[in-house]
Specification:
With 78 residues, the chain is an alpha+beta fold. It contains 3 helices and 5 strands. Helices cover 42% and strands 24% of the residues.
Amino acid sequence: MTKREKLLAKARQTPNDLTFDEFETLLKRSGWVFKRQSGSHRVWLSPNNRALPIQSDGGKAKGYQVKQSLLIMENGNG
């Protein structure tokens, strides 16, 4: 199992327990590109140019943002 597959499984099972670094690693390994940062918000673009602003919550990824990224990935729109 690749690191991407492990992170994807973790994101699906427990989206609220993903660290922010793990979330960004998952995005990068899934073909997303970091576009810009404005304050605490980091904007990532999916392979199909869907923008997703994310931000750290005390070193953790926000669960709803992880879920948004999974929806984009699973619907073939990202």
